[in-house]
Amino acid sequence: MNTFKGPFRIMFEDLRFQFYILAGVTSFLSILYIVLGIFVPSDDKFMVGVSFGPFYGFFLIYPFLFYSKAFKYIVSFGGTRKQFLLSSFLNISLFLIIAVLLLNIFYFLTDYLVSEGISKGTLFHMGDLVSGAGIYLYPWIDLLWGIVLFSISFFLSSVWYYYGTLRTMIGLTAFALLAITFITLGNLNDIISFIIIHHLAFVHILAAVGIVMMILSYFIMRNGPLERGKTAGFTVGSGN
Fold first, then answer.
1. Which of 39, 77, 79, 184 is deepest in the core (most CB within 10 A)?
2. pTM for the predicted model, two decimal places
3. What is 42-77 written as a DSSP string?
4. What are the pLDDT digits (tens) for 198-237?
5. H or E segment and range at residue 63
């Protein structure tokens, strides 16, 4: 597999299958919410549910499956780790854009039905947390949150694969202790106020950090081990 086409195709086919499942679940939920908004008696608008749950959950969970599925297939067919990483980033970018379009079609349809007086049920969107955000900002916010969730998960899964379960758990425990100490002893009022008042800027900062984490993931795994935890210079068990 000396070209980029093979690794890209493997990732594309797997993500296409996942997209069909998630699109079906999201469509069912969104249509159900629309029906409830139309037929549930109410004198005023009410929040009927959320549609982004399946896709957001996918971005957070699926990167941990990359190294147990696609990575092994690509490497076994002669692909390189760089090809795996680049095909992962490109395919997930395409997946994210199409998912955002699908989600916001249902958001716009729901808002249109409410504005026309046909339905009373509205969908919660992460953009609702942004003060004064218009509906046309919603796709961008979905895109940012997709980047945040995927990048965090992909970075953690890369670290987990490179260093193994034991060393990763030790690192996460140390990080958790530092976070708990900071939360307990630090003054979080300014941070909480910034998140609430400048939520859009906060999401952009998270997305920027997420992009940095994806870049770090690339440098971690571009010459990473072929088996989880088998890093040079470490001799702690098998990394499992």
1. 79
2. 0.83
3. -SS-EEEE-S-HHHHHHHHHTHHHHTTTHHHHHHHT
4. 888 889 999 999 999 999 988 888 877 776 666 644 444 4
5. helix 63-66
